[in-house]
Amino acid sequence: MARPEDDTQQVTAHLVPEQDVTTPERSPLFYTDVLGFEIAYERAEDQFVHLRLGGAELMLEKTLGRGRITTGQPVRPFCRGMNPQIQINDLDTLLGRLDEAETAPLLSTEEGRYRRARTEVGNRQVWIQDPDGYLLRFHQDLGERPMA
After folding, report:
1. If both were cysteines, with which of 12, 42, 53, 143 could 49 make a disulfide (CB 3.0 to 4.6 Å apart)?
2. In angstroms, rounded to a whole number, what is the distance separating the alpha carbons of residues 61 and 68?
3. Strand runs (DSSP E) across 34-106, as ranges?
């Protein structure tokens, strides 16, 4: 993998996924009321909303909205093969909101440990599917420890 030769050549990048949604009136409510996102801004004329949860950002727009580029007709569940990982401070609060909304996680909550160089990082995570089938993985950091 190519690396910059010095720090002055580093590029700053900020990734904000934009997801097509079939129900632009329902999807933002799922993200705000159930998942805890806040609306950063919206454009009603485009059926578009920009959401934020801490440092995580996400944009939602009506499927095949005006001026949209697409590689084909969307088929549910959307975004197959990708699951953004969203780090939060308190997974139990999110799980409580899911219970209140009678929304079951796609997979049970689990703890995972993953090798990173000579250490292991841990997280407690849960997978949730939104109304259009997008898979989201929320995790709470459990810290780092030396490899066993």
Report:
1. 42
2. 9
3. 38-43, 48-53, 56-62, 85-87
Convert the pLDDT of each residue in 101-128 to its tens digit: 999 998 889 998 999 888 999 999 999 9
Are the beta carbons of 37 and 52 closer than 8 angstroms?
yes
Q: Are 31 and 130 in contact (CB under 8 A)?
A: yes
Taking only the tens place, the pLDDT of each residue in 30-81 is: 999 999 999 999 998 888 999 999 999 999 988 765 555 566 666 666 666 6
Phi, psi (degrees; rounded to nearest 5) at 20: -75, 140
| Domain boundaries defined on the chain | 15-65+81-146
Question: What is residue 116's three-state secondary structure?
Answer: strand
Structure tokens at 62: 């009506």
Q: Does domain 15-65+81-146 have CATH number 3.40.190.10?
A: no
